Description:
This protein has 156 residues and is an alpha/beta fold. Helices cover 40% and strands 25% of the residues.
Amino acid sequence: xxxxxxxxxxxxxxxxxxxxxxxxxxxxxxxxxxxxxxxxxxxxxxxxxxxxxxxxxxxxxxxxxxxxxxxxxxxxxxxxxxxxxxxxxxxxxxxxxxxxxxxxxxxxxxxxxxxxxxxxxxxxxxxxxxxxxxxxxxxxxxxxxxxxxxxxxxxx
Length: 156
């Protein structure tokens, strides 16, 4: 990233159409976004057709003023889902989940990290961001939902 910045790159544009995906992989993308921002570049996200799950956090990680989402994008925000084995049912982890094993502790650690990121990006108290990731409190909407929550800046 610092090489791109030293070569005059001022803005990185990311067009995102995603149902989400791996939280751990998403955290790595966020690390790179933060590295670009620290190097002086603006990271501009444009969320299209679907911006769900981890993709909502990626949009939020963009540079303030450079986080866009299409008005008619399908947006979903929910708690972290952990699958029980390759063919098992997925299980939702809320901030209130009581850990009984290592998988639960890992799920809660990921949830805590996600809450801290969302709260910071949205400029909201941790308790507000935690409510977004509470199981049973899934939020569905269009691009305006991300703007209302402070996770995006403008609807396109």
